[in-house]
Amino acid sequence: MKFLGGTSPCVFITFVVNMTYLLYGYYTTSTSDYDIKWTMPQCVLTLRLIGLAFNLLDGKSPEEKLSGSQKQVALKTQPTFLEVAAFTYFPGSFLVGPQFSMKRYLDYVNGRLMGDNFNKDTVHLPDCVIPGIYRMCMGLVYIVLFQLGSMFITDQYLLSSEFQEHTFLKRLLFIGIWGQISLYKYICCWLLTEGVCIIFGITYNGKDEKGRTLWNGCENIKLSTFETASRFNHYIMSFNINTNNWCAEYIYKRMKFLGHKLYSQFATLLFLAVWHGLHSGYYICFFLEFIIMYAEKDLTEILGKQEKLQGLLKAHPELRILFWIVTKIYTFTFMGYCLVSFVLLSYPRYHHVYSSVYYCGHVIYICYPIISILVKKFLLKKSSNKLKSTHKFVR
Q1: Measured between alpha carbons, how far is 98 from 135 in angstroms, rounded to an integer?
Q2: Do 319 and 312 touch, CB atoms closer than 8 A?
Q3: Longest alpha-carbon distance in the chain
Q4: What confidence score (pLDDT) does residue 120 get?
Q5: Direct distance between the N- and C-terminal alpha carbons of the chain, in angstroms, rounded to an integer
Q6: Could you say which of 233, 276, 351, 362 is catalytic?
Q7: Catalytic status, residue 352
Q8: Does the annotation mark 240 as catalytic?
Q9: Distances from the Cα of 223 to the Cαs of 143, 238, 240, 245, 384, in angstroms?
Q10: 59: exposed, middle or buried (C-beta count within 10 Å: 0-12, 13-18, 19+)?
Q11: Which residues in the chain show pLDDT less than 70?
């Protein structure tokens, strides 16, 4: 960055060097289990430095070629070595995130982030202290939930003979419960670090329509959306928000040259899998995410066009509740199904669990394109016949 500045070669070299170093770390130190070691903060740092190189490139690009989000984080001047080091090792985020831009950090340390809204002479606690403590307390709650849940359903339980003795539907339900508990491990970490970042003041995000200060600028988990999710897209919108936003800005949107959103989405998920590590479980998990999101989007569009169904749901609140319960159980169960390979990592382990439920998720979603054709043909034919009848009646 010192010698190449905001240029494409700088982005390319930064990307290659950081990803190569990270992958070499995975290759030389990984085990068959979930590893807690230096590669964890290193994967956070990798995104941070690659994003910094992109921000410098955007700062040198003509503004008319930049999107609104790119303009907000573009760097017109190159940061100093001290600024880069401070940004890299910011205490509240260097271990597990959250990700934020160098522009936000420089605005924060130079007093521009909060501007006139920050009163240096106040003798009271800053507005950020209570929200920060609240998020940290929520983190403690999720630690308790994770510990209690892990006492009943562990990774080893899914691999046990006792688990195999349950019925098929019960095994699927247990996988869903186990998946939810597994995600709590990440949520508690993010809530604790977000609490720290809020108390520092770096999460300042302006004020709402009622004039209340917002401290959600580095929010990594939307708890209400996550806990009430009835679609897979709800999980994506609410879970690991900053990393998802990073991938959207620096990978997905930069893949426009591929010519199709599906190709860009596939490339983004492939990058995420590689960034997580070399275990095959990561690639299986993100492949499942890709085909599930394709199926969900397609099916949502099909159902959205069914006027009779939509009319029934609007007219009958009890049907809406029933529909929500069914979709909630569905997403809850198959989110856990996807996480089996992500958490268990190695093929012998996740194959053991997937085979216990006959790889049902893989079969359903891989076969969905064929199912979709049949569903569309049936519904379109039905709609067409209804339209003809109506037209005949009007004539």
Answers
A1: 14
A2: yes
A3: 79
A4: 57
A5: 73
A6: 276
A7: no
A8: yes
A9: 14, 7, 11, 17, 43
A10: buried
A11: 116-125, 379-395
d(CA 355, CA 335): 17
Q: How many residues in total does the chain contain? A: 395
Q: How far is CA 292 from CA 1, 333, 334, in A?
A: 39, 13, 9
Tokens matching residue 257:
């040259």
The answer to whether 232 and 293 have CB atoms below 8 angstroms apart is yes
55, 240, 242, 244: the active-site residue:
240
| Nearest one of 60, 92, 59, 95 to 74, comparing CA atoms | 59
Whole-structure pTM value? 0.88
| One-letter amino acid for residue 69 of the chain | S
Measured between alpha carbons, how far is 345 from 281 in angstroms, rounded to an integer? 4
Beta bridge partners of 221: 239
- What's the rounded Cα separation, in Å, for the pair 79 and 88? 12
Tell me how crowded residue 290 is: count the other CB atoms within 10 A of its CB. Answer: 18
| 239-255 pLDDT per residue, tens | 999 999 999 999 999 88
